[in-house]
Amino acid sequence: MQNENILKLSYLPQLLSQNPGKMNFLQRLKNVIVFWMLKGLNTALFKPLLVQMKAEYGIKPEKSLAEVFDDKELTLFMSDFAYEYPQPMRPDYKSIGPVSIQPVQPLPSCLRQEIKSSGDDGAIIVSFGSNVASVLDKDKVDIMAEAFGRLKQKVIWRLQGYKPSSLCDNIIVRDWIPQNDLLANEKLRAFVSHVGMNGMYETLYYGVPVVAIPLYADQFDNTAQMVEKGVALTVDYNNLTVDDLYNKIQRVIHEPSFRENAQRISRLMQDRPRSPVQEAGDWIEYALRHESLAHLRPYSTQLPWYQYFLVDVAVFLVLVVLVVIMVIKYTLRLMCWMCCRRDKKQKTQ
């Protein structure tokens, strides 16, 4: 798998690189550096766990970390090429789509009434996920509250921990919200989010434009990709201001291109014969019905790096060319020597 990833570095943004899909030279250089840094970091982090796992599950001690990761029958990726950057995939890699998408359920009566009362202005939802919602800085929460209070839309805000003492009438704060069901509502105008993987796919599936406030890790990559696809604008959390947040929300709501791009991706994601959960079940059952899926695994996984990248072939061809050049060189020298010798002989006679 490592060899395949190296080949993709020229056109596929690496995790945590924050690169766009179309990279210039410096971005491709950054892609390579980030790849090798992550490889070293993964080895350092996972090696102790691997030693423990080997002892616990009786894994052969001679297997390397890469071999352990590669020793599987099938890999299911919760990604969808309706949105993701296109790339070649092995037959034993299956892109099934986001399994977090659930059938839409009726909203609780209180939320249903709030959204209904929003009229033509509609509503937006704000959520920073389970891990972040309770640890947002108080000053940032106050800035968000002031920006949301300026909006005409109803604001349904998932917020835990600190809550501002006074909120405008259009803001509804809840410890938990049915995010999947709210995103599916026709009155929803935008989603303010940290752009975690699940939230990103849910909002794309329902075609809702985003104001992204990434906080850490892959959220910056997700944001960069959504901005490039024309479905989001980004706000810097560390330099958050009321005006910037308010203006970005206004643009996402009122500039048609954001919703049009989001709706186009939504139509592509929903146009599939089986849901992601059903497709995952299909492939798992397929794997269980057969003793081995070795027929899906390409022979390239068994090749050492110098054979995979044809280094041995390249070296051989270079040697052949050098030999041919040397033969031609010495042949010409021999011919020149013979010609010179003949000329001298003729002059002597």
List the helices and strands and how they pair.
Layout (H helix, E strand, L loop, with lengths): L1 H7 L16 H33 L7 H6 L4 E3 L15 E3 L13 H8 L6 E5 L1 H4 L5 H12 L4 E5 L12 E4 L4 H5 L4 E6 L3 H9 L4 E3 L6 H10 L3 E3 L7 H13 L1 H15 L5 H14 L15 H4 L2 H38 L1
Parallel strand pairs: 1-2, 3-4, 3-6, 4-5, 6-7, 7-8
Helix pairs in contact: 6-10
Question: Care to describe what's here?
Answer:
The longest helix has 38 residues, at 311-348. The chain has a 6-stranded parallel sheet, with helices on both faces. The relative contact order is 0.10. The chain has 349 residues and is of the alpha/beta class. It is built from 14 helices and 8 strands. 51% of the residues lie in helices and 9% in strands.
